[in-house]
Amino acid sequence: MSAVTTIEAQPGIVPEGTGTDRTALAGTGLSPVQPFYVNLRTAPLVTLAVRRDEIRLSEDGAVMARTGEYTGRSAQDKYVANDPDIGEEVWWHPGNNPLPPEAFDRLAETVRAYLDQQVLFVEDLFAGADPAHRIRIRLVTTNAWHALFARNMFIRPTEAELTDFTPDYVLLHAPELHLDAKALGLRSSTAVAMSFTHRLVVIAGTEYAGEIKKSIFSVMNWRLPVEGVFPMHCSANIGVDGDVALFFGLSGTGKTTLSSDPERALIGDDEHGWSPKGVFNFEGGCYAKVINLKKEAEREIWDASHRFGAVLENVVADAQGHIDFNDGSLTENTRSCYPLDFLGNFRPDGQGGTPRNVIMLTADAFGVLPPVARLTPKEAMYHFLSGYTARVAGTEKGVSEPQATFSACFGSPFLPRKPKVYAELFGKYLTESGAKCWLVNTGWIAGPYGTGRRMSLAHTRAILRAILNGEINASEWKVDPHFGLEMPLSVAGVPPEVLDPKASWADPAAYDRQAEALLARFAENYRQFEGA
Ligand code: ATP
Ligand code: MN
């Protein structure tokens, strides 16, 4: 095994004292022949990423990484080792494929053999802001920028916490290794695989950094229900008087955008746990969508993305490093990843109390759901299990028909257990807390995608303000005839016709047809949960 840091080879880059300690690789099963770097922080990681030609820098010193073929999650290539005794508990579905234990071992050995030949970066990090429910992660990757991504994304231990760090989970990350699918019994040359028995995550064949973050989310979703904690795909923030709000929703519905609010401290933008003590973040950073990001509309995310050490994924810049957020030529899923302390207003402890408001975000591209509705606990459970949003299909020319997506608990790709497990926890904590529930449509109004328009961010923010300061309760309400949802007639800062979806459509009969069609999709999807 070589010296950990090869200080001679990279003079001035690597801090002294990271040493040659073999325990830095304990639990990984690795014995690399090349140097490996342990727990480097931002400056040396950025320096090495530049020297190794992994990335470019923006004019502000943000890391600009490209991920090649995969610019989003490889949803079909996700596996869970079908280890003895867990098969019954795992929710097997097309986004959660069983891998026989021997196949998982073979995959892990293949990845280890490859990593042993590479220069490696090791980062020891936490997931879970609440020490009672945290896991210690040891990530080993072949790129300095992926190591920096993980440092930005997860919770960074203190020096003292690093001294006797023993990992609960190891994540072996080989983004540039293309697997032999046939020999390994896999669907493709890419795999995101985990074994809950071996406490090991293996990622190969994709450079998209979001896989690192989301695989650890799956691990938390596996572990926490056993500890009586409700793991959630939601953002969370807290007001000056300590009121906590949760924002559930599928990708692109506004979790990150709407929780970044100068007036409310951000707890986290994507993954949380709800315990008897309250809410806690799993992460220590944000992963914001930045396509078409505007400085005026999203100042917090803008500022955080124009800083040394932020990681911009598949964002395009000119030769001088000037960022163009409107350029979607690599992907529409451009991302910015930064630690929470890049924001002006955040909770350093990543924790808050019991939520007062639970907001379910949906981006309804059919344009039929009301911009805001008040939900009974029963309706909240229905929408939680349904997990509805509607996307606009791809970038193909002329395609304007939105696609309905139903994803149980607003996160089925990340749920290793059956939806019932999470629904029961949701029901329990909702009842105990008496939190108010809301459905907020951040998608289309005045017609479907193509005819109508997207809800303005300013109106959605005004709606949230009225929910969070309680003023919305003073409104009069009416029940919509299709979904039976209670809608307010007035919200400060929002024109009344925007609040009533049918009134915003030019053709009321077309609205009724579209609403009934969507209702039928809801019912069809919900059948799987009936009698369960
Ligand atoms: P992910 O789970 O992938 O992180 P997310 O729920 O965090 O997704 P955001 O990153 O907040 O989603 O993306 C919402 C996108 O929609 C942003 O690009 C935002 O600018 C845009 N948007 C447009 N109108 C609205 C609106 N009314 N409310 C919220 N977001 C809006
Ligand atoms: Mn987000």
Automatic annotation (TrEMBL):
Chain sites annotated for binding ATP: 214, 233, 249-257, 298, 335, 460
Binding-site positions, substrate: 73, 208, 214, 335
Protein task: Involved in the gluconeogenesis. Catalyzes the conversion of oxaloacetate (OAA) to phosphoenolpyruvate (PEP) through direct phosphoryl transfer between the nucleoside triphosphate and OAA.
Catalysed reactions, semicolon-separated: oxaloacetate + ATP = phosphoenolpyruvate + ADP + CO2
Keywords: ATP-binding, Cytoplasm, Decarboxylase, Gluconeogenesis, Kinase, Lyase, Manganese, Metal-binding, Nucleotide-binding, Pyruvate, Transferase
Binding site for Mn(2+): 214, 233, 270
Cofactor binding summary note: Binds 1 Mn(2+) ion per subunit.
Class of the enzyme per the UniProt entry, highest EC level: lyase
E.C. code: 4.1.1.49
GO biological process terms, semicolon-separated: gluconeogenesis
Subcellular location, record wording: Cytoplasm
UniProt family annotation: Belongs to the phosphoenolpyruvate carboxykinase (ATP) family.
Gene3D superfamilies noted in UniProt: 3.90.228.20, Phosphoenolpyruvate Carboxykinase, domain 1, Phosphoenolpyruvate Carboxykinase, domain 2
Source species of the chain: Acidomonas methanolica NBRC 104435
Cofactor(s) essential for the protein: Mn(2+)
Record-given protein name: Phosphoenolpyruvate carboxykinase (ATP)
Pfam families associated with the record: PEPCK_ATP
Superkingdom classification of source: Bacteria
Functional pathway: Carbohydrate biosynthesis; gluconeogenesis
Gene Ontology cellular component terms for the protein in this record: cytosol
MF terms in GO: ATP binding; kinase activity; metal ion binding; phosphoenolpyruvate carboxykinase (ATP) activity
